[in-house]
Amino acid sequence: MMKSFSLQFKLNLTITLLLIGLLLTWAVSVVKNAREDVLAEVESTTNLVIHLLDAEIAHYMTDFGWLNRGEKGEINIFRLDELTNIRHLKVDFFDPTGHLRESNRSTREKHAGEDPPTWFVKLLDISSVLNEPKRKNIILNGRLIGELVITPDPSFELREIWEDTSGLLAIVGLFGLSVLLFVYWTVRATFKPVKQIIQGLNQIEHGEYQSRLPSFEQIELSEISDKFNRMASTLEQSIRNNHRLTQQIIHLQEEERKKLARDLHDEIGQYLTAVHIDASAMVAAKKLTVARESAKAIAQITRQMMFTIQDLLARLRPRVLDELGLSLALAELIHHWHDRNRNIMVVNEISNHLSQPDESVAVTVYRILQECLTNISKHAAASRVTIAVTDADGGLYMRVEDDGRGFDAALPSRGYGLAGMQERVEGLMGTMNISSAPGQGTRIEIRFHNTAQFKEERLRGTAP
Question: pTM above the 0.90 mark?
Fold first, then answer.
């Protein structure tokens, strides 16, 4: 259920429950201490009054003249009306017939202040004290002259405790409310940037890659802002590069189609025209020797057409991959390239026992090596090239390294070559790493992970 609530709400709720828990703990402690104080106060006052009355009784045991006077109601035997300042006890003296003779609360004046609420009195649980008045029979010279009844009366103490507690409760409540408001404001101010982050993510989701976050005051959120802005910049640059690459690919496709169309028109078209002329000559020939010459010409032209078509097909698809396999196809590519670049020493470290990868991976490796060799011959001015292709961890590893002039790998590539190679490798779930610096040569490493698994995914249609 809590999963549907925001983190801001959870923090506010947690802090509120914590404050309520602390307030309840404090309240329990206050009630416990108040109950102990009331009981101790009533007990000590009761003992004091009993000692005072015992002293008074001892005094009257030496003088019996007051007894007759007291029977006529002329005097108060214990002078309880002088004990009105003893607030925690009610002391009454009853004669043997049960009539009230004296009391320290002869007139029950209304207590000053506000009486505590009933729930507070019940919470203190001092009913056991109120229900246990102490009684003492007064017997002088073997004669019962009355009974003293001492009844606990904690109303004054309860009133003072309630006044103190209610005042302190108001202060604590005001403090707790202030803390809650402060926490709510602080949490709200802290999480305010989260809305900006979410808004920025929504903009990225809808293709607004130029979206950026401001720098926040909080260190953690400031780091998130920096990472977000870098991510957005990288993503924007990647999208821009993808658009540029797409345009270049379309341009290259159109150029390749124009070249194929031109080759078909210039070469195949001419051959077909020559075949048509010789065939027409054969039809019109009246001598067998003339027809035979035209047939020989047609045979020669068709052979030339076959060679031309094979060259065109080789440009469209390296047939050697199907005929020789990846290892020999790469070796043949390196051999033909070296024939044209005798001034560059080639170190061939291609394994002779490569496992046959997926067709797309094999074509990609072949085309990338072709592109690398072309770049080396055009731009690197290298004297040594090392080419390694091996099986590694169920996948394929390829390294092309030269000692040429190199370049700054940190600068964005403006050509299609390296960027296109990167796109082809990543499209087959591979990784490509380029290490280069001006004057220090270039090292290109490509790794295709688990080509067997990629084959299965291609069959299931889940691979790119």
Answer: no
